[in-house]
Design a protein that fits this description.
alpha+beta, YaeB-like fold, four-stranded mixed β-sheet
Amino acid sequence: MNQIFWSQEAKDTYAAILNYIMDNSPIDTAIKMDNKVERLIKSIENNSQLCPQSIIIPSIRRCVATKNLSLAYRTEGNVIELIAFFDNRMQHPF
């Protein structure tokens, strides 16, 4: 079984995005997004190659969690490191 590890960057970027949504949208929107992200992470835990490789950095995989939110992660053995979450409408290195 694969093991999920959250980098500090992943924790920080996810918290910032979730806080922004909670401050600017109905709480249901934040709950729905959080549930989608949880399901995505569980799916990645079961299949570490679920998402496509980044064109820019092939060792990193990028998943679209919602229309506006993506997750970058990498695998090493049975450890899956969540690198960062980012808004799809903004510039990002992945």
